[in-house]
Design goal:
By secondary structure, this protein is α/β, with parallel strands linked by helices. It has 27 helices and 29 strands. Helix content is 38%, strand content 21%. Strand 25 and strand 26 form a beta hairpin. The longest helix is centred in the middle third of the chain and has 30 residues. It is elongated, with a radius of gyration of 33 Å.
């Protein structure tokens, strides 16, 4: 059939009608609801009116007898041009005038496993009988009471001590899923009756439109509102588990609970939620294969096209002081990794998100093309397997010492060699915190001319570098390499809090220190060039942890020797651009590899997006701001004025918060007339508006947001010049 006209008969609240209307809105019903008919005034009629569907009330009392009422119903259905009739909680029995007019074209949904418990009180009768299993039946209506040929059935266990209201709620959830699917099969002409049995044409069923459906189960809710709103706007049905479902509802979005899909509430204190054929069948079905599509149709299982999972934070739990073994075991995610691996295996049909950072890319592709591209699905699948591998490795490392007898001294926890053939160069005093062990591993094949960090060069003075010293010193040297002339960078906790390109080293130091003199206390400094005595005097005037420079003059060494706790590290490579390299970073027990973000940008290729181009002075500061922002943890905003870093907003979950912090760090005097850089696009104009209100006059950013036009319009309104680079510099 095509252009099927559907009439729905109702008597109550209209929850099944709501499900049918929702399926119609998603293009999954196979036809159009043209009439909603009732035998009495009811809430369902109001629902139909709100949806713009014609309604009709035919009370039995207004007819001489039931046969006359039955003929009136048949006439109304005929006048409406109905091809298919659906009884959705209709509390009247149709007579021969209707059943003869629509043979094999009337569907009814009933809350029991027919032929058991027919009639108006099927739920009460089932409970009174003490059955352990009941369910839902969709059948074709004939002259018998709830006895026509069965189209589909789904069993549902009756839980011990379950109330009637709770059972009815679970039955309704099954009805809302099963009935629209059966209507779609009927509308498509997939149903035939022979010998009192319904046959479903597998070929037709396999070609029915698949719903846009996403399963979200996120222990870490970072990015969840953005993802949920984005998917809902694109027409996805959101299916979710407890805490994630609650968060989605709190965001004002409709969500289907996993229990409504499986028919079974979560059990065993939440250990079992998603481990069910109606979930994993919908994930693992390869929709390229007609037989898989047909099997889904026969089982009334709707497929998923997107899964988003963040796993229980086992590593954080393992690091929690005093956590008991049983408590740690409860932090092991079972359902999450199962979902991740299933979706990754079936990446031909399913996109698997395991990291909030993946959300913008996926939403952008869905908005542009309606689907997640195959290359992206492949990348997501590889990342998903890396995640589960790292997760299991973390569990082994954390549980191994607690499940097996301890062996060997503590140092053996840091083996001399790793699988990447890296050699342990030194044991550090401790790691990021005093209770953590740490070591330095080096590549024996590294270039002998590489910098001190690749060769574990000892400081010229002071005690050995700590884990955090090494991280900050390497970060500082990286910033300095991107500076020009007499460039100086000050690093605190991995982010530049001061940086400048001055006419001479002393001026550069004063400008860099002015960027954030409070944060510079206890910081790490990198100097692009030699340190002479005059600069050493200035450096000695503040408490610093490490100074990295091209070299230290003898006179400077003498001055700085008075600071016994200060480490000095010579790095001749600091005046040269960073060579191409692969960076390795740990992530939950795995190693992530990426090309180092060291390739220089070409300001000449940047595009002016606003009506006003930047001035030459603004361009110089924008160039510096863009070179600095790549070294700031995302979301990153930097403010630059007169060749120096004035304020930094780093590591915030929203870009607008980073903008507020950068402005606050700069202060009213330094931010007025300054420029700013953003490591990634502005998703909304709000971040730009914060900068504009503070007095920023020019901005450089990658562009590429769906709301670029809004952001550019806001810049034009504020008189701000904006350059778009086309390159993002996230630094997580």
């Amino acid at each position: 059939m095509s252009g099927v006209r559907i009439a729905v008969a109702v008597s109550g609240t209209g929850s099944n009608l709501r499900a049918l209307l929702a399926a119609q809105a998603r293009g999954l019903l196979g036809g159009e609801i043209v009439l909603v008919l009732a035998d009495r005034p009811c809430a369902a009629l109001e629902l139909a009116r709100e949806a713009g569907v014609r309604t009709l009330v035919l009370p039995l009392a207004e007819h001489a007898d039931r046969a006359g009422w039955d003929r009136a119903v048949a006439r109304a259905l005929g006048t409406a041009g109905a091809d298919l009739v659906v009884l959705a909680g209709f509390m009247r029995v149709l007579g021969p005038a209707v059943t003869d007019a629509f043979p094999g074209r009337i569907l009814n949904v009933h809350p029991s496993l027919l032929p058991s418990f027919p009639g108006a009180d099927a739920v009460g009768d089932a409970l009174a009988a003490g059955v352990a299993v009941t369910g839902v039946t969709v059948h074709l209506v004939d002259a018998t009471l709830d006895g026509g040929p069965i189209v589909a059935q789904e069993a549902l266990p009756v839980l011990p001590g379950e109330s009637r209201a709770d059972l009815e709620s679970r039955l309704h959830a099954v009805e809302h899923r099963l009935l629209p699917r059966c209507v779609a099969l009927a509308a498509a002409g997939a149903l035939s009756v022979a010998g009192g049995r319904v046959a479903i044409d597998a070929g037709i069923a396999a070609e029915l439109p698949a719903p846009r459906r996403a399963l979200l189960s996120m222990s870490d809710k970072t990015g969840l509102p953005e993802l949920a709103h984005g998917l809902a706007a694109l027409g996805f049905e959101l299916v979710s588990t407890g805490g994630t479902a609650a968060a989605i509802r709190a965001a004002g979005l409709p969500v289907t609970d996993v229990a409504a899909v499986t028919g079974v509430p979560e059990m065993l204190d939440g250990r079992v939620k998603t481990l069910h054929p109606r979930i994993h069948g919908g994930i693992l079905a390869d929709r390229r294969r007609a037989d898989h599509r047909a099997q889904l149709a026969a089982a009334a299982i709707a497929p998923f096209s997107l899964i988003a999972v963040t796993l229980y934070r086992f590593a954080e739990a393992a690091a929690r002081p005093g956590i008991a073994l049983d408590g740690l075991i409860e932090e092991i995610d079972i359902g999450g990794p199962s979902l991740v691996r299933a979706a990754a295996k079936n990446h031909a049909s399913v996109a698997i998100l395991t990291d909030p950072a993946q959300i913008p890319v996926v939403l952008e592709e869905l908005a542009e093309t309606g689907e997640v591209s195959e290359p992206t699905r492949r990348r997501l699948a590889v990342a998903a397997y890396a995640l589960t591998a790292a997760y299991d490795a973390t569990i082994v490392r954390a549980l191994g010492p607690r499940l097996l007898p301890p062996g060997g001294p503590g140092e053996e926890r840091l083996p001399a060699r790793l699988g990447l053939s890296l050699e342990r160069a030194d044991l550090l005093r401790y790691g990021e915190n005093p209770h953590q062990a740490a070591a330095v591993y080096l590549d024996p094949a590294a270039d002998p001319d590489a910098g001190p960090f690749a060769r574990a060069v000892a400081p010229l003075q002071g005690k050995a570098l700590s884990y955090n010293n090494l991280l900050d010193a390497a970060a500082a040297a990286g910033v300095a390499r991107d500076l020009r002339g007499h460039g100086i960078a000050i690093i605190k906790h991995g982010n530049p809090c001061g940086a400048a390109e001055g006419p001479d080293p002393l001026a550069a130091w004063e400008q860099a220190l002015a960027g954030d003199p409070v944060s510079a206390f206890g910081g790490v400094v990198a100097i692009r060039g030699p340190v002479e005595a005059a600069l050493a005097e200035r450096l000695a005037g503040i408490f610093l942890e490490v100074i990295v420079a091209e070299r230290f003059a003898p006179a400077a060494r003498e001055i700085l020797a008075a600071k016994s706790g200060l480490r000095l590290l010579e790095d001749p490579s600091i005046v040269r651009p960073a060579p191409p390299a692969v960076e390795l970073r740990s992530a939950g027990g795995a190693l992530l590899a990426t090309d180092a973000d060291t390739a220089p940008d070409d300001p000449a290729a940047w595009r002016v997006a606003t009506a006003r181009p930047p001035t030459e002075m603004e361009r110089r500061d924008l160039d510096l701001a863009w070179r600095l922002v790549r070294h700031v943890k995302s979301n990153a905003i930097v403010v630059v004025r007169d060749g120096a870093l004035a304020g930094t907003g780093a590591g915030q979950m929203s870009r607008v918060d980073s903008a507020r912090i950068a402005v606050a760090k700069a202060g009213p005097e330094r931010v007025t007339g300054a420029v700013a850089a953003s490591d990634a696009f502005f998703p909304f104009p709000d971040g730009l508006e914060v900068l504009a209100a503070a007095g920023v006059t020019a901005i450089v950013q990658p562009g590429g947001s769906q709301r670029d036009a809004e952001v550019i319009a806001a810049a034009d309104q504020a008189g701000i010049a904006m350059l778009l680079t086309g390159t993002r510099h996230f630094r997580h």
